Amino acid sequence: EAQAITIRSRQVSLDYRKTGSKLTALASVFFKGNVDSLKTDIWGIEISLSYKIQNKIDLSASYSYLRTRRSNEEFTFPTIFDLPFFIRAQVKYQPTALWTISANLRTRSGVHNQVLAGANFNPELQVFEPFFLPLDQQQRLPIFNTMDLSINRIWPIREGLVVIGFITLNNVLNRENVRNINFNEDFSVIRNEFFSRRTFFIGGVINF
Questions:
Q1: How far is CA 164 from CA 18, 93, 203, in A?
Q2: How far apart, in whole angstroms, are the C-alpha atoms of residue 207 and residue 76?
Q3: Phi then psi for 21, rounded to 5 degrees?
Q4: pLDDT digits (tens, 9 = 90+) for 154-205
Q5: What is the DSSP string of 39-103?
Q6: What are the phi and psi torsion angles at 75 (to 5°)?
Q7: pTM recorded for the entire structure
Q8: 187 φ/ψ sector (left φ>0, alpha ψ -120 to 50, else beta)
Q9: Which of 26, 58, 181, 202 is the most exposed place for a label (fewest CB within 10 A)?
C-alpha cells in the first residue's frame, strides 16, 4: 500500500533590479528549507550585470553561490548542487541585424564526489562490491572551465520564411573537464569520465 510523504517547505528571498539605458544590474539572496525523510537547507546569492555598447555589443556576466546541505540523524553532508562559485560571461557582437557573433565563458567549482574506500569480493555473486567513505567526507572534482564560440546568420527568404545558419565551436580550448569518476571491475583502477572535448557544429534552421 502506498504511503503519503509529507514535505514541509519554507522559502524567503530578497531581489534587487536596476535598469538603465545601457546597464542592467540584478541581485538576489535567498534561502529555502525542505523537510521530508531528510532535512535540506539551501542558501544562495546571484549577481548579474549586462552592458550595451552602441547597440552592437552586449557584455554580460553573472556570479552564483549555492550552499546546499542535507541532514539525517548521523551527519550533515553537501549535495551535488553545492557550488561556492559559478561564473558566466558573454560577449555578443551584432555588426548588422542579420549577423550575431558571440563568445561564452563558464567556470564553476567541481561537484562533490563520494570517495571510494575499498572493495570486497562477493564469492556468491562473483563480483567486487565497493564501499565508500561517509557522505560528510566527500571530495570535489576539479574545477570546470569551458569557452564556446558561435556565429549566426539570418537569411530572410520571403515573408514568413526565414533561414538561420549557425557555426558553433564548443570547448574551444579543448579542456578535459571531469564529469564523473569510474572504476574497473575490481575497483583497483580509477578512471575519469570527461565532458565533451572540442566539438564543432554547423547547421541551419528554417522558420516558417
A1: 33, 17, 9
A2: 51
A3: -65, -30
A4: 999 888 899 999 999 999 999 999 999 999 999 999 999 999 999 999 999 9
A5: EEEEEEEEEEEEEEETTTEEEEEEEEEEEEEEE-SS-EEE-TT-EEEEEEEEEEE-SSTTEEEEE
A6: -160, 175
A7: 0.86
A8: left
A9: 202
Secondary structure letter of residue 8 according to DSSP: E
CA neighbours closer than 13 Å in the CB half-sphere of residue 132: 12
- CB 146 within 8 Å of CB 177: yes
Name the 3-class secondary structure at 3: coil
Give the position of cell 553561490. 65
Angle at 130 between CA 196 and CA 70, to 5 degrees: 75
Written as one letter, the residue type at 186 is D
Whether 20 contacts 50, CB under 8 Å: no
Residue type, 26: L
